[in-house]
Amino acid sequence: MYKVKNLSIRNLRNVKTLDVEFTDSLVKISWNNGAGKSTVVDAIFLAIVWKTYIGKGRSIESLINKWESKAEIEITLQDSWKKLKISRTIRESWSVALDIWSSEWEKLTQTDLDKLLSDFTIDPLAFTRMTKKEQYELIKQITGVDTKEIDAQIKNNYDLRTLANRSYKEAKTVLEEMWTVEYVEPIDTQDIIKQIDEANTKNLEAERAQDLLKQLEDQVWKNNQQIWEIDAQIKSLQDKRNQIELQNTELSTRIENWKSKKWDVIDTQPLKDKLNDAQNHNQKVSKFEKYCELKDSVQKLESKAIGLDNEVKSLTEQKENMIKSADLPIAGMVFSEDDGIIVDWIPFDQYSSAQQMIMACKIATSMTPELKVIYIKDWSLLDNNRLQELEEFAAKNEYQIFCERVWEEVDTIILRDWEILSE
């Protein structure tokens, strides 16, 4: 794994000349604005992958000092047994010359250089600006642990469990309100209804008989009226009177016959009361049956909720075992697509900026790039303790960390022959 050993700059942007050797794991670059701090970092990336990291979007000609016709960058990369020297010359004609020297005298091209860097290891702070889903995808790529499917199963079972628990609680509440319900035998109301119908039929016949009797009595009264009138008028109508009397005799016989019959009216109120009692009784039967059905439903819902809860626990345990068995860049870290990164039960975005930076650096080193260089744009976020921790981390993992910040006093590596173009 390579580190940056030496860097030389000539006429690059506002840096006239710079020759520096890097020996420390933590390289701090601080000065006031316009001092060329970003140019130093840009020069490293320009030499290796021909891309500016700080001055993104700059045209090639703007990289050359305006008083010069060309700019030169030379960088030496070294690991424990091999050395690479990369030289780039940028001319006004926009032409760029690349020369690569290897201690093993192998022929290298730009394609070989492109493999040395990854965007993430260049700036770990980019990790802190990622969305939770982007962070998850990167950690999944690093560890090889894909929890997307099991996370979806956990979420689905969790939602089902929540729904089952809600249904269980609602059914249980209704069940508790019915705790006074007791079992009673149902009563057959059909026979009672039949008796009422028969009584009503007989009562209707009696009413009709009474009406007919009244009609007959009215007819007799009218006939008597006629008799009285005939008697008063003329006796010559005696024959007619006799006929009428005969008719009355016959009618009287019929009346007596009707009167001889018993037309007792049946009182249906007791039967109606009996029916009402039976219906009330059967309502209790129905209520008890519903109670039994609901009780059975509550038991099933409770069993379903418990089963889903056990599934969630089992899937969560599987996920935890997957993560525990992986080579994690940070101890105590778990991750998912929805929650992102969680370290020691605290979400990543709830840590301080300095803590996030340290963790991002640990994640960066786990990607094992060919060039072991990390760049931090603004290390003013770090206090002395965090800066010391970062330096110890870089030394332990054999990394170079370049830190930049705006500071009026020079607090950096010793820069030999540092010459800045005056405005």
Termini, distance in Å? Answer: 40 Å
Strand content: 15-25%
Number of helices: 11
**Main sheet attributes: strand count, strand direction, barrel closure:** 6 strands, antiparallel
Principal-axis shape: rod-shaped
Order of helices and strands: EEEHEEEHHHHHHHHEEEHEHEE
**Quaternary state, please?**
single chain
Determine the fraction of residues in helical runs and give it as a percent range: 40-55%
Radius of gyration: 53 Å
SSE-based structural type: alpha+beta
User: Uncertain segments of ≥5 residues (pLDDT<50)?
Assistant: 408-418
What are the defining features of this structure?
alpha+beta; three-stranded parallel sheet; 11 helices; six-stranded antiparallel sheet; 423 residues
Describe this structure in words.
It is built from 11 helices and 12 strands. With 423 residues, the protein is an alpha+beta fold. Helix 7 packs antiparallel against helix 8 and helix 10 packs parallel to helix 11. The longest helix is centred in the C-terminal third of the chain and has 57 residues.
Q: Mind sketching the topology for me?
A:
Elements: E1 3-12, E2 15-21, E3 26-31, H1 37-49, E4 70-78, E5 83-91, E6 96-102, H2 110-114, H3 119-122, H4 125-128, H5 132-143, H6 148-177, H7 190-233, H8 238-260, H9 269-325, E7 333-336, E8 340-343, E9 346-347, H10 353-365, E10 373-376, H11 384-396, E11 400-406, E12 416-420
Parallel strand pairs: 3-11, 10-11
Antiparallel strand pairs: 1-2, 1-4, 2-12, 4-5, 5-6, 7-8, 8-9
Helix pairs in contact: 6-9, 7-8, 7-9, 10-11
